[in-house]
Write a structure and sequence with these properties.
By secondary structure, the protein is mostly beta strands. It has a single domain, classed as Immunoglobulin-like, CATH 2.60.40. It is built from one helix and eleven strands, in the order αβββββββββββ. Strands 1, 2, 3, 4, 6, 7, 9 and 10 form an eight-stranded antiparallel beta sheet that branches.
């Protein structure tokens, strides 16, 4: 009987010790990171409104991202169009990522002391782009040229290029 009492006492003690051992648990986790290809943008074509005829009334020339021109007010488009192009940029980065497109508010173009403002920039795609399965996309940019009444003749260019910025979303 003494042996049975000792076995029961040992069993109770073992259960008590095992409960204390099981009061703590541990889990593990791994750390990781993925480095994506940096996004880049390269200009391929400059924005060019082509030949424009001014009159005694102010007006505008709008060039769409597709390169189509239209006019308002006292501006006409001569039969000899000159070079007409929307700006074009190649964007590259990680395939299937989206990115935000930021366009300038305005830029001044000048011919000597004479100036005109280019504003109302638009793009295709607009606001957000999606890089293809190869990690590339073309962004085209149009804008509005504000022509003054009796704007002086000349070749007008921007003193500094305008910025188009892209950032991953």
């Amino acid at each position: 009987m003494k042996n049975i009492s000792k076995i029961i006492a040992l069993a109770i003690a073992a259960v008590g010790f095992s409960a204390q051992v099981n009061a703590q648990a541990t889990a593990t986790a791994s750390a990781s990171a993925t480095i994506v290809t940096p996004i880049s943008i390269t200009k391929t074509i400059d924005l060019d409104f082509g030949n424009v005829a001014a009159s005694g009334a102010a007006g505008t020339v709008v060039i769409s991202p597709a390169g189509v021109r239209s006019t308002t007010g006292g501006v006409t488009l001569p039969a000899t169009a000159g070079t007409v192009t929307s700006a074009s940029f190649d964007v590259a980065g990680t395939a299937n990522y989206t990115y935000a497109i930021t366009l300038p508010a305005s830029v001044t173009i000048a011919s000597g002391a004479n100036n005109m403002t280019v504003n109302a920039f638009t793009s295709t795609p607009s606001a957000t782009g999606l890089l293809s399965g190869t990690g590339a996309q073309t962004v085209t940019v149009g804008a509005t040229l504000n022509v003054g009444a009796s704007q002086a003749a000349g070749v007008y260019t921007s003193g500094t290029p305008f910025d188009v910025t892209v950032n991953y979303n």
